[in-house]
Write a structure and sequence with these properties.
nine-stranded mixed sheet; about 35% helix; alpha/beta
Length: about 325
């Protein structure tokens, strides 16, 4: 089976459900966005959310996808920085426990955190303090990084360091890896549209939701699909309750959604990518890849956070014929 290595922020998620969206206005964070905050502001947001119950879990966009792929039996690795602290240890051990090969660098800076604020409708908003993850840089990337890996999964948030982002994509490509990019957040795409368009020809697989796709191309989801597919090998545009659109060459597929109860959309895109890539690694056709991605996304939005318990994993694996 082909192997995949991911690169991105190693974060500890702090998940909080709020009872109304006025809270987001008070802390000045647009609903559905990802905002980078420093340690002081992160603490202030924590104080404002103090009256709500919170839970913690290992997280980070690419890390969520890589963790899920490992749970599905794919050989996977992950590159990032963590602090020499309990949160960093917790993150690293949680990845190793499911079979991920952690290729971690360690810093005296505290490990990063992502405050995930969950609205009553399940939409999530992020206030992220990258902490030690900010120290991930282009100097740790070289051709040897990608030896023996078939795919390199890059999270869009990594574009905060343009030198790292570009070097990762070009070095992985030159090393024979298929490069996968998840666009991460519409505001990240808006701020880096020209740079992303410059690099699209070097990327093999692109995942975007409808808002991210529109931010990249200033067109509709359908037109964005064709635009991206003209430059990358596979384009995937997720269109919310209407499912997802997938295009590779002359083949276009639309995957519908099932009606499920939405508890929390945290990690939905990350899980879709994991399910889709699991199918691709197993040489399934695009429709089956998209169906598996959709089923995994539907599973995660029925729980709080971006991790599922073992019973739900068993149910999911059984639904796609992996149960043993």
């Amino acid at each position: 089976m082909k192997k995949i290595i991911g690169i991105g922020s190693a974060l500890v998620d702090i998940l909080t459900r709020i009872d109304n969206d006025e809270v987001l206005k008070e802390i000045n964070i647009p609903k559905g966005s990802m905002q980078l905050v420093d340690e002081k502001l992160s603490a202030a947001i924590g104080d404002r959310l103090g009256k709500y119950e919170s839970v913690m879990a290992p997280g980070g966009s690419a890390a969520n996808t890589i963790h899920a792929l490992a749970k599905l039996g794919v050989e996977a690795g992950f590159i990032s920085y963590v602090g020499k602290d309990e949160m960093g240890k917790f993150f690293e051990e949680s990845m190793s426990s499911v079979g991920v090969k952690p290729m971690m660098f360690h810093s005296d800076t505290a490990s990063g955190t992502a405050r995930t604020i969950i609205s009553p409708d399940g939409e999530r908003t992020f206030a992220t303090n990258l902490g030690a993850s900010l120290e991930l840089n282009e100097n740790v990337i070289n051709a040897e990084t990608f030896v023996d890996w078939d795919y390199c999964y890059v999270e869009g948030y990594l574009i905060a360091n343009k030198n790292l982002f570009k070097k990762t994509i070009l070095t992985a490509k030159d090393s024979g890896c298929k490069v996968i990019l998840d666009l991460a957040s519409y505001n990240v795409v808006e701020d880096n549209r020209d740079f992303l368009n410059e690099l699209l020809p070097y990327i093999d697989i692109v995942f975007a939701n409808e808002e991210e796709a529109k931010a990249l191309t200033n067109t509709s989801a359908e037109e964005s699909l064709y635009y991206i597919a003209d430059r990358a090998e596979i384009a995937v545009v997720k269109i919310g309750k209407k499912g997802s659109l997938i295009k590779r060459g002359g083949e276009t597929v639309q995957i519908g959604c099932n009606k499920v109860e939405v508890i929390d959309t945290t990690g939905a895109g990350d899980m879709y990518a994991a399910g889709f890539l699991y199918g691709l690694i197993n040489d399934y056709d695009l429709e089956k890849c998209g169906t598996i991605g959709n089923l995994l996304a539907e599973s995660i939005i029925q729980v709080i956070g971006a991790k599922m318990d073992e019973d739900r994993w068993k149910m999911f694996k059984k639904s796609i014929g992996l149960f043993n």
